[in-house]
Structures are given as structure tokens and as C-alpha cells.
């Protein structure tokens, strides 16, 4: 098996996303208004390595699910910008919910390499605990929040059947949404640094999931 060299186009394809993610988190940390526009660049830049891999990966359906997950993640990121007249939180739950369903299908149909470990039950426990804490504050969104939380926990759990990169990415994605839920439904419960922390864990989680996906697909083609 040939080792990947630093000149590997897949490696270079991740660099714009890594740079944009670091820039976005830094801008959030200093409260810059430029943080908003940089957020809209994240998922399109993360799609770059996916498109770089299109000509090399045999499983095009897996790449299609990956692109769908990134597209709906981008819509979730930009819901308030593209749909200013609509309620932002329900739209975010809808778009990210679809993105997570695409990831679950990707993990189960194309990337699963082992049985789900016993410790993945921690994600079921996470769902129960989040409902206990957030449920009383969710109001009319209780059912939507409960369903979205179940889908999110399922993403993290099914990721444990895949590579270590995808599994860790799923955990970071879960951490990001946990912080976001606390910030949305329990205002004042988190310190000021929670906003950059949410995006740091989100961008890291998404990046690791995509990296794990593309590396796994590439190994099948070798």
C-alpha cells in the first residue's frame, strides 16, 4: 500500500476548511461582526475534499450522502440568513436533522466496519439527561427537540461502528449541539466563551467525520 505524501491532493483540499474554521472561531472569540460571513464558508469549503475524491472513490452513493449531509448542514448554519422571515430554531432543527439522517445512512450502509460497542449506550443516556434539563424549557418545541436529540444521539452512536476519526467526529458534533442547546434553551447558563466553543467543536466534528469518510472510501479503492 502506497503511503500518502504531503503533496496528496486530499490533504491539501482540507486546508482551506481548516483555515476558515480557525479564522471563524478566532473572530467569534473577539466578537467581530465578520464571524457571520465566515460561517457561511465553512460547509462549502468542507465539500472541496469531497469533490476532489469524486473521481477516485468507487462508491458514488456514499459521496452523494456525504454531500447531502454537508448541504443541509450549510442550510442549518445559514437558516437565519437565507430565511429571515421564518423562525430560525425550528428551521435549524429541520435542516440539521436531515443532515444527521444522511450521516446515519452513510455510516450504516457504507462505512460500518464493526458492531456498535457497549459504551455507545452513553449516547442514549445523554438523550435522557438532555430531555430532563432542556425539556421543561423547550415549550412548543419539545417534540421537535426530543426527535432531533434522538437523531443526533443516533449519529454519534452509529459513528462508533466506523473509523476512529468518524467516531470522534460524531462525539464532537454531539458536544457542539449540547452546548448550543444549553445556550438556546437555558440562556445565561453558559459563559461568554461558549459561542467559540460551540463552533470549535462543530467544525472539528464535521471535519473529522468527512476525513474519516474519505479515508475509508479511499482504502477500499486501493
Rg estimate, integer Å: 17 Å
According to DSSP, the number of beta strands is 0
What fraction of residues sit in β-strands?
Answer: under 5%
Which regions have little confidence, pLDDT < 50, spanning 5+ residues?
A: none
Distance between the termini: 7 Å
Overall, the morphology is globular
Count of runs of 4 or more consecutive helical residues: 10
Taking the sheet with the most strands, its summary is:
none
- Helix-strand pattern: HHHHHHHHHH
Secondary-structure blueprint of this entry?
Layout: H1 9-29, H2 35-39, H3 42-53, H4 60-77, H5 79-82, H6 88-111, H7 121-138, H8 142-159, H9 164-185, H10 194-221
Helix pairs in contact: 1-3, 1-10, 3-4, 3-10, 4-6, 6-8, 7-8, 7-9, 8-9, 9-10
Task: Walk me through the structure.
This protein has 222 residues and is mostly helical. It has helices at 9-29, 35-39, 42-53, 60-77, 79-82, 88-111, 121-138, 142-159, 164-185, 194-221. Helix 6 (88-111) runs parallel beside helix 8 (142-159), helix 7 packs parallel to helix 9 and helix 8 (142-159) runs antiparallel to helix 9. The longest helix has 28 residues, at 194-221. It is globular.
Which key phrases capture this entry?
222 residues
Task: Give the structure's gist in a few sentences.
Helices cover 77% and strands 0% of the residues. By secondary structure, the chain is mainly alpha-helical. Helix 7 packs antiparallel against helix 8 and helix 8 packs antiparallel against helix 9 (164-185).
Amino acid at each position: 500500500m502506497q503511503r500518502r505524501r504531503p503533496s496528496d491532493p486530499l490533504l491539501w483540499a482540507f486546508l482551506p476548511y481548516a483555515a476558515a474554521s480557525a479564522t471563524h472561531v478566532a473572530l467569534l472569540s473577539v466578537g467581530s461582526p465578520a464571524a457571520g460571513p465566515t460561517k457561511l464558508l465553512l460547509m462549502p469549503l468542507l465539500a472541496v475534499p469531497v469533490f476532489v475524491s469524486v473521481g477516485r472513490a468507487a462508491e458514488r452513493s456514499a459521496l452523494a450522502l456525504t454531500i447531502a449531509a454537508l448541504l443541509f448542514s450549510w442550510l442549518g448554519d445559514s437558516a437565519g440568513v437565507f430565511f429571515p422571515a421564518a423562525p430560525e430554531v425550528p428551521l435549524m432543527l429541520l435542516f440539521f436533522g436531515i443532515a444527521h439522517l444522511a450521516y446515519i445512512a452513510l455510516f450504516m450502509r457504507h462505512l460500518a466496519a464493526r458492531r456498535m460497542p457497549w459504551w455507545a449506550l452513553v449516547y442514549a443516556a445523554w438523550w435522557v439527561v438532555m430531555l430532563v434539563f432542556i425539556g421543561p424549557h423547550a415549550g412548543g418545541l419539545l417534540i421537535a427537540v426530543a426527535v432531533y436529540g434522538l437523531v443526533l444521539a443516533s449519529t454519534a452512536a452509529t459513528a462508533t461502528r466506523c473509523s476512529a476519526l468518524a467516531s470522534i467526529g460524531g462525539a464532537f458534533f454531539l458536544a457542539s449541539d449540547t452546548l448550543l442547546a444549553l445556550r438556546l434553551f437555558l440562556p445565561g447558563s453558559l459563559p461568554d466563551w461558549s459561542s467559540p466553543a460551540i463552533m470549535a467543536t462543530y467544525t472539528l466534528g464535521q471535519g473529522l467525520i468527512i476525513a474519516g469518510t474519505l479515508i475509508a472510501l479511499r482504502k477500499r479503492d486501493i
